[in-house]
Delta(14)-sterol reductase LBR (Phaetusa simplex), 613 residues
Amino acid sequence: MPNRRFADGEMVMGRWPGSVLYYEVQVTSYNDVSHLYTVKYKDGTELELKESDIRSQSSFKHRKSQSSSSSPSRRSTSRSRSRSPGRPAKGRRRSSSQSREHKDDKKKTIQETNIALLVLVLFKPSENNTRRYNGEPESTERNDTSRITLEQKLKPDLETERVLEQYSLRPRKEEKKKEEIYSEKKIFETIKTIEKASSKTKELEFGGRIGTFMLIFFLPATVFYLLLMCKQDDPSLMNFPPPLPALESLWEARVFGVFLLWFFLQALFYLLPIGKVVEGLPLSNGRKLHYRINGFYAFVLTAAAIGTLLYFEFELHYLYDHFMQFAVSAAAFSMGLSIYLYIRSLKAPEEELAPGGNSGYFVYDFFTGHELNPRIGSFDLKYFCELRPGLIGWVVINLAMLLAEMKIHNQSMPSLSMILVNSFQLLYVVDALWNEEAILTTMDITHDGFGFMLAFGDLVWVPFVYSLQAFYLVGHPTAISWPVAGAITILNCIGYYIFRSANSQKNSFRRNPADPKLAYLKFIPTATGKGLLVTGWWGFVRHPNYLGDIIMALAWSLPCGFNHILPYFYVIYFICLLVHREARDEHHCKQKYGLAWERYCQRVPYRIFPYIY
């Protein structure tokens, strides 16, 4: 095995592939099998280079000093030759007269050359001794010589270009400068081609093209199956399949109109000039997008609007009565939005495409999202859908289920189970809106494109699946005692504390690692300039926020009792989702941080569950 010359973390000069230019890079790792170095450029680009393409910085400094030391002697030599101090004054006068004669001869040569070139263009003989103009034979030209213009006669061709190059009267410096510009353009075109090729998504998730094609149909079918099962008197998994309703009963124009009204009402709240404007994380081209943080204000305005409807005795349980129709309307809207997003992404610049949704395969890019941050003016579609219509709609649906339970069972007060479910999930939504700025550092915003996966997830899956416990309790009331309710509340508080404190640590450290309030946190430095926390919650497990999420999901399902597994679908789904996300994060972080991530995994061996996984 050959010995490696350069150590990890060493600053060297790396040659850019396809060019002769060297740039300052940092060695991040070395592959003993392929004998390739992984290096990181200043703009964050990581490439694998051969050892022959890497030079030490000292060798570049040595060459520079040699060239600079030799230049003064050459300048002094040229200066001594031009001055000729020993020549008499007469000789100098004779030299100036010769110079004037030389200039006259040069002008005469230029005139003769121009005349020769003009004659060459107008009367250039061809190989078969037949004059051709504009690529046509002489016979054609004789029949229609009146249409030959002077511009056609003077059109340059290959032979004329050779003559022009031979008798070029441009200064040498100008020619040299033109060659340098041409060389730089060629290098930039090569770099652009390499970057375009490297920006393609090579590793496909979700089962690739076949898997994403199936998910486009499987996800809506899962939502409709869960809602149909909750409507059954016995929602047991043994009662499969549930009786299907008539197709015409699944669609109602009025319901779709209410959904559109809800969506555009939230869009109006989003556009209100209230709340601060913050910058997101830098994109691949270094640009930072601006986001208005007013999600909590939108929630307050929505609460005021709902309160006004209830004051005028609007029956909010209309949502419960037409719940399946609302789900169908939301699914149809999300599909239409996804089609629009993919069509507009075809015209998006290369640097605005999502790293994970640029495979070149229609189905895969349509599902994962082709464009990273689609915007209409300053209106960010992905950021808006991430928190507003679906998340706030989730709370409104829960409230509608609470009112429907009271009406159907003739109760003056909602059940304790329904109160717990509504309270726990209301806390989760309010926390997300209050800490809205934290979402700007998540992979949904920084890495994932906006396609069917996020559009359907934000507008259909979140409001109609996350509210499954409340929907279940309307048709299957479950009585729990106060001690049990107290134990479930403590469990939810523990999960929320882990979730919130872990996310706060991560977001604060990402925003300002030098904050004195974070001085107690220890971290492992990486080649990207960021640090990996090894103390606090992130030194306990690698994804403590996922641990808090799972604990809270369990607390949301426990008020539904243990008669059926259906209310625990959310817990099972959440565990599967977070395990998938954790595996994706592990792969992404290993590529991004290299050896630093391996050191972090040695320090923090458990991923989500301490001492288990």
Summary: Residues 258 and 326 are 9 Å apart (CA to CA). The first strand starts at residue 11 and ends at 15. Residues 206-479 form one domain.
